[in-house]
Amino acid sequence: MFQILLALADGEKHGYAILKEVARRTEDKVRLSAGTLYGNLARLEGAGLIAESDRRPEVVLDDERRRYYLLTEFGREVAVAEAERMEEALGQARAKKLFRKPKLA
Amino acid sequence: MAKQTLPFSQRLFRALVRVLPFDFRTNYEGEMEGVFREQQREVEERGGFMGALKLWKETIAGIFTTAPREHWQILKSDCGYAFRMMRKNPGFTAVAILTLALGIGANTAIFSVVHSVLLRPLPYPNGQQLIFIRQQETKLGNSDMSFSVKEIEDYRAQNRTLSGLVEYHAMSFTLFGHGDPERVRTGVVSANYFELFGVQPLLGRTFLPDDDKQGAPPVLLLSYEYWKNNFGSDPEIVGKTFEMNDKVHTVVGVLPPVPQYPNENDVYMATSACPFRSNKMHLEDRDMRMMEVFARLKPGVTVAQANADVSTIAAGLKAAYPKSYPDNVGFTSSATPLQKELTREARPTLLLLLAAAAFVLLIACANVANLTLARMAKRERELAVRSALGAGRSRILRQLLTESFLLAIVGGILGLVLASGSLELLTDFVGRLTPRAREIHIDSEVLLFTLAAALGTSIIFGTLSAIFSRANLTSSLKEGSSGGGSGRQQNRVRGALIVCQIAFSFMLLIGAGLMIRSLFKMQQVDAGIVPQRVLAMRTTFNWSIYTAADKTSLVAQKLLDRVKSEPGVLSAAISSRYPFEPEAITGGPESYSFQFQIEGLALEPGQAPPVSTFAAVSPDYFKTLGIPLKKGRLLAETDKDKAPYVALINEAAKRQFWPNEDAIGKRVSGDGGDHWITIVGIVGDVREFGLEHAPTAEFYASQAQNAQPATLIVRTISEPRSMAQALTRAVHDVDPQTAVTHILTLEQARYESMASPRVTASLLGIFAGLALMIATVGIGGIMALMVSQRVREIGIRIALGARPASILQMVLGQGMLLAVLGVGIGIVGAVALTGLVKSLLFEVPPTDVLTFSGVGLTLLAATALASYLPARRAAAVDPNIALRAD
Lengths: 105, 886
Prior knowledge:
The complex is a heterodimer of chains A (about 100) and B (about 900). With about 100 residues, chain A is mainly alpha-helical. Helices cover about 50% and strands about 10% of the residues of chain A. Chain A has a single domain (about 1-95), classed as Orthogonal Bundle (Arc Repressor Mutant, subunit A). Chain A has a 3-stranded antiparallel sheet with strand order 1-3-2. Chain B is about 55% helix and about 15% strand. The radius of gyration of chain B is 37 Å and the shape is globular.
């Protein structure tokens, strides 16, 4: 779910684009299928985290059936909150020396 | 065209997607397909079979993990919504749940009986292999003539289809050595009886082949119940001894708690221990029959094969012993599955009750559907708004079904409680019809049935109401706020449901009415006796003391003299049986049949010999029971052992055997002419074997000339039961070893003899009453709703000058129209279903005009009553308020 929010963080996308982006970013570790993708989209939409976009790309590029999804204000807040929660958890894990500090660049 | 060119993978994908909820599909199906196509294209570009396989795996897994979650989501929200709706309409919810509980409860109760008695196999290993064999004299109408020892030996030796064959007969003996002398019900059985049924003893052993040999030391097996109730489940019981029939009997074992067929017994003994079965006459005389025979089929053998086998044996016997099986009696034998035999009597009654219960459930369904429809009228706008907001129709249907399912489940649980509460009563009732009644209980299959009934019910009434309300969904938003003004079509549906309810109620009421009418007829029928203030008590002399007939008649005479001297006794008699005696009712006339020849009357070849029933009575029998003498004389004290044999006959016998001549002075013989009995008198007919059976030919012989097991019959001045103790004392004054049992007034016996039709009538009556109540409440509710929907229209009519009386008439007329239609359909249905009740009726035709018109009028009156209140409300509508109300 978080992965989907992340995929929409830099702009609206249609379903297949979300699926591709998640796969690319996680190096194929998170693989969505048609069923799981739309199951999650439905729930996110129901919770008001994402919404359907009115805007359509130019007609030539657009496949009529495609719907574009965007992150709502609330969705963005949730994504940020979730990221912060993760960061905090990560920090605490590091403090307990659960794993190495990230190498300095 | 496009469909045909669609690649297989796309079609497969579409098929897979169908497991997702409808709404989800409408929303996302196209896109999902698009995504899937893109993924496929990508895989194809990269090439490789493994990639495609992986895609399919992920796709299928994805859909199957998503689907249950989506369905669950919908169910959760629907249930939550349904519960809120139920709480918001407590009146509707209560009525609907109660109606369903009654319908489902009635069905669960009756089904648990049908299931335990008719459907479930006998609770013995391979119970379907157990059969019952009977010998018949078809030309004499004797369908069960029982078996003699000789015959049992023949069947055992000659059959090819049976793996075992055992005999059974029930006796009542006095057991000494455990407190007071006690009468015990005793089953006398072959040594391999329990082995054949597959029953292992709880303690000790069952019988061994040696126990069956003549002169073997007598041994007893105790039934589980007798052991538990009378010996406190004594674990040391095996080896204890008791005295019975003047012999020491040793307990060798205790049976487990198994159902006992054909009767329940306290103890079992081997054949050699029964003083009757082991006397020379029974062992050697082929015609001394008193045993029943059970057998087990060899593996792979059908009942039909066994049936052919035993009838071949019967044919062989007939050829070998023509004297025992004369040509003219139509001797044969047959095999039937034991289960069928045990439930023969119960089957028609139980099926009738099952049908009645199903009717009640149908009426309940129609009623709840109607209630739901009525409520739907109020919810139409809510549903229309939801549908306008994008809820698909199937989504709304689904929600309505969830609501109805919840109602049905709660109703079902309540119904289950009602059913298990009524089970004891039902068991008691069914016990009169079949020995399997004790097995009645609610098991997992009954629970499954209840669940199925609830599910089916909710689908029926839920779909009914949903489908009929759908038509209005789209239109009702446009219609303004009059609350379901589109009701025309809906009202028609409601009307149809009411008509159904009335029709089904009519059929149920007819069933109940016919049973009640036939019960009344039965009660009014002249039994031929005066049963008031007569007490009957079985007096069993100790067999071993009174062996000779003269000794028995002597003690019987002493007994009668002593009882007659008791204050409060008007007259007393002793007899081998009496009218409505429970054993006689169960056994039927066949158990007392008397085959004879008439002096000077030769039978044509193949002609059946005359047969009648037979009782041995003392002279005052007729005076005590109030049976009138029609001609000749009664029996006298002088008709003793050494005097010429005499008998009385009833009028039925006179009509049957001597229709055109005087029967007095005629002689008959029951033993091929060795002894002749002279007919000295004719008495009135008595319905000996139950009020529903017309009197048949009967011979009353002198008790002093035919010593038989006896019942003391006493007519008293006051209430007869109050005399029971004094009379028992009087009997014991004469012989303290005589057991006095089965104390019953004749009125009680008469009442008991009608138990089965009475309980059937009351159960049907309860069902019909339920149906009538449900239907009437439903009609009232629907008429009220129709009126409230038409307030505006009625207001306009009144404003335009319609008189209140004509409004009243209009509403009443509508209700009555439905009732008349319902009754009309009900008449057709009832006439079509007469076969169900025909066999249970007594002197009432299944299309009895009185019942039909009575029930019809009752229903019309109920409908009129139910529509009257709404009609009055309609007539009282104030046009000013009605027109302003919008």
